[in-house]
Amino acid sequence: MCFGRCARCVGFKLLILALLSIVANILLYFPNGETRFASEHHLGKYVECLHGILGGGFLVLIPAAVFIGLHNDDCCGCFGHKDCGKSCAMLSSVLAAFVGILGSGYCIIISALGLSHGPYCFTHLQRNWIYPFTESSGGYLFEYNKWSECQEPQNIVQWNVTLFSILLVLGGIEFILCFIQIINGILGGLCGLCCSHEEV
Question: Most buried of 37, 68, 90, 139 (most Cβ within 10 A)?
Answer without folding.
Answer: 90
